[in-house]
From TrEMBL:
Gene3D superfamilies membership: 1.10.287.130, 3.40.50.2300, Histidine kinase-like ATPase, C-terminal domain, PAS domain
Tree of life domain: Bacteria
Enzyme class, broadest EC rank: transferase
4-aspartylphosphate: modified positions: D59, D563
Protein name: histidine kinase
Amino acid sequence: MDTERVKVLLVDDDEDDYVLTRDWLAAAQGTTFDLDWVSSYDEAIATIAQCQHDIYLLDYRLGDRNGLELLQAAVAEGCAAPIILLTGKGDREIDIEAMKAGAADYLEKTQLSAPLLERSIRYALERQHTQQQIRAQAELLDVATDAIIVRSLDDKVLYWNKGAERLYGWQAQEAIGRNPNLLIYNESLVDQLLEIHTALKQTDTWQGELHQVTKNEKPIVVYSRWTLVRDRQAQPKSILVVNTDITEKKLLEAQFLRAQRLESIGTLASGIAHDLNNVLAPILMTAQLLESQMHDERSQRLLPIVVTNAKRGAALVKQVLSFARGLEGTYTNLQIKHLISEIRQIAKQTFPKSIEVQTNIASNLWSVSGDATQLHQVLMNLCVNARDAMPNGGTLTISAENFTADEHYARMNLEAKAGSYIVVTVRDTGQGMSLETQERIFEPFFTTKELGKGTGLGLSTVMGIVKGHNGFIQVWSELGRGTEFQVYLPAVAVVEYYRQTEQDTPYGNGELILVVDDEAGVREATKTSLETFNYKVVTASDGIEAIATYAEHRDRIDLILIDMLMPAMDGITTIRTIQKLNPQTKIIATSGLAAQDKFHGMTDIEVQAFLAKPYTAQELLQTMKQVLCSQPVGC
């Protein structure tokens, strides 16, 4: 304060007191005081409102009014400068009221002296400066996004910053003085809190993840740092807690781990499905062939059973593959509202009358690019699950609306990308699911239904189809309150769609076909079927044998049917080698894996068509006829 000039306003109706105060302040050492004087309450109010002084000296007696009233009025008007109340005779009650009202000091005129007045003013200004620093620091703490809490040793909130207000929903005035354990913790965390206090006693610090709740009971996860604060005598004084909200981060981690788990299951499922397809293919083809050759009553009765069950097995494998890799379909631009109308009709006609079916479709709904049959399967599967979840009746609601995901939304959902979507929501008012069940519903063969009432492939197939359409699924469910599935599909322009009709089974014209497959059953069944329909066939069990056979018959072979996954030399390498011998060779690739993987790693080779195992004789013959006739085939 050696270089400071302090502006002082004295409010006193006695001019003699003004003169005495002026002389005292003029005699002060090291500080220059500029003293102004007003003698009435009203004049004082007007002057204080201008905020031009560093400190105010108020006499208690001001005619009909008093200095305590003036003090209260000045503070109410927002006066931030220190105020010292002066009185002719000490009064303890006035002293207490003055301190409560915000006075920096209370001085008796009868005991006042120049040094005492100067010291009181200096202390008041220093306290104000300290308080300003504390307020500035508190403002910095309030700007922080973290929740900063100071707890007493007997579990009372001493400080609660704005970050804590934003995170938990409790205002500072609601939280201060209360037990934070009752505000933001569940009873299940009592043991963890005991561990924290034990760690504080041993090391003065603790940090880790805590599951907490907000004022409206919303669960959150925070990364929490606890520090035991000690006084100058090294005795524990309070506990500083800094909490960072990591709820979104934990949700993203859970999504990532779940996606990894499903990917691993999908990889395993695709490998098993490939082997099963090689088993089913010759069974299906041989049974179909025998149907056309054996006409006795017993064969005609038993062979359709073999064919039907082989197809059922193939359908199950196809469902597994749709989960693992996705399935290729006839993708056209279509309106989801048409599919929803079909599903609504089916549900109304076949579901129990105790289930009310409602639809809500946006009038300007965008279109999607997809396979109508597969998307029909998705909606039907979700509606059937909803029906099963409402054994005592309820409401099934199917809705569709447009949705635009921004970059923030995309960051929140690992499977989403910024852009336009159609959102189809299937909601029921049924039994709901636990969190544990929700974590596993998309896994193949997981089911909560009774034995014999579900394969556990329905929702895994739904997931595979939706992913194959570059979409994603969100699920909400709560026990006793129902379940909601939201299917997000990328939006495109509106174009009507069509469905292909099945063609008649064509015969060959004696063409020579090279069949390459490491499975003997597949080779023989394919060979027999082709020969039955007027083709000639040579076979090879691996890529090396295929190249040798082709070299021997290259001028006569019209088409090669080759499996892509074989030991020793795989299909891709074999095709590359054969095409070096003759780039014009017509080739149909086959695989037990999903159709969308057919050209993986095949960017430098050309095949005319692809068949996913197990295929029927009709599918094989139609594809071959199209390739041999040089007609385009959807590969």
